[in-house]
Amino acid sequence: MEGQVPIKLLNTLSKAADIVRGHDFIQVYSHYDADGVSSASIIAKTLLRAGKEFRITLFTTLNDRNMDIIRNCGAECIIITDLGASYIDQLDAMEQDIVVLDHHTIISDAKRICYANPHLYGIDGMVAGCGATMSLLFSVTMDEKNWDLVQVAFAGTAGDRQHINGLLGLNVYLKEEGVKRGYIEEFPGSLIPSGNLMTELFLTTDPYIRGVSGNTEGVAQLLKDAGITNDKTYMDLTEEERRRLSSLIAVRLTEQGMQLSSMQEVARNKYYLKGMNMDAENLSAILNGCGRSGIGGMGVAAGMGDERCLVLGAEVNRESAVQVVENMVALDSKGLNQMEHIQWFDSSDSGFTGMLCGIAMQCIGDADKPTIGVNRANDPANLSSRGMWGQLDKGVDLSVAMREVCDQFGGAGGGHKIAAGGSVPAASVDDFLKRLDEFIGEQLASR
């Protein structure tokens, strides 16, 4: 890795590996989304191969309540993946041996614990290295034989959408090694989903196509307009059929206001995982579906390569995809609530807040305003925010906005400039939205 990975990061990873080698039992905490489950799977497989006992716990977010769980877990060694950047000072104050492998915006550097984050080495953790990237680098530091886990790392990269505008930074190194070692194959993408077209066009939310996604009759009409029979798969199509169908989808997306840049992101390159016989986005969806369905343990096992869990996870993901597209159709019919500088929706009845937030921002929202998803099903309420690259150019920073405004209402938040989350007391949500709208306005005015 020397020459490809910053020497300071290599030193941190070596220190982390030495810490873990010195313990027989390790408690692992991670996020419940695709990147978090991928990270946990990599760490679990690494520890299993090293002969360590371990326990995995997934969190929907890291907040004061979950920090108390970490403090009182009883383990002498703790690994935290895809979480932790907002709580480094508190983790530093604990007595246990702690390794944090995160990629979110840095609040402070560590003084005692072992903390690896791309941002600490001049690498943008929003686009050039995710939690699974850091977990994989730790894994191969533990043992070079763990390079096969680069396939799982790419599920995390796909889950955090770090591949949509081309790989950068540490992710490039992982791809090069994965390709060289025979684990990964790169191929061009398309606006057309892979698989059976009737099924996949019905389920597609990447992109969400108004009048087609979640609409069997709409799918059939789209295929008829393209001169394609209903029994075709993507691989069955001729080049001319692909051109016609892709053009019709592009027209639909343009009519509903989707940006050209977003369409180009949808048609991103894909990464086939040879050892798992699927592309990285498929594995990412399986792990994400398990995590968000409350069966994260099955997701971790799937990421570790358990065939039965992969099959069951795929079934869960298909059920989840149906629910997501149904909820997206419902959200599209209601529309987003517009404020001066933000747009928002309530998903308390449906869940899938983060997923719907990203889809809405990319496919149906006002491209000039960040989209906020609110889920008041529990207290504190969970919040998700998504932006566009053009908003960042104008001064929007959702990581700062969510962290500072959540804090003003007794909650916690953070993440990336373009995608961040948080939580506040459910009773404070309306006031939170008003203040967030003002805060985004202040960011825009500061440019």
The rough form would be described as globular
Tell me the count of domains: 3
Using the coordinates shown, work out and report the CATH topology of the largest domain. inorganic pyrophosphatase (n-terminal core)
Structural class: alpha/beta
**Poorly predicted ranges (pLDDT <50, ≥5 residues)?**
none
Question: What is the number of E strands?
Answer: 14
Radius of gyration, taken over Cα atoms and rounded to an integer in Å:
21 Å
Which strand order does the major sheet show?
9-10-11-12-14-13
Helices, by number, come to 18
Gap from first CA to last CA: 40 Å
Largest sheet: 6 strands, mixed
Describe the structure.
- With 447 residues, this protein is of the alpha/beta class.
- The protein has 3 domains: 7-167, inorganic pyrophosphatase (n-terminal core) (Alpha-Beta Complex); 197-266, no CATH class; 335-445, Diaminopimelate Epimerase, Chain A, domain 1 (Roll), CATH 3.10.310.
- Helices cover 47% and strands 14% of the residues.
- It has helices at residues 7-21, 34-49, 64-71, 88-92, 131-142, 150-159, 170-180, 197-203, 216-225, 239-255, 260-266, 280-292, 296-303, 307-334, 353-363, 389-393, 398-408, 429-445, and strands at residues 25-31, 53-59, 77-81, 97-101, 114-116, 184-187, 270-273, 278-279, 337-338, 343-346, 371-375, 381-386, 412-415, 419-424.
- The strands form 3 sheets. A 6-stranded mixed sheet has the order 9-10-11-12-14-13, sandwiched between helices. The protein has a 5-stranded parallel sheet with strand order 2-1-3-4-5.
- A hairpin with a 3-residue loop joins strand 13 and strand 14 (419-424).
- 51% of the residues are buried.
- The mean pLDDT is 96.
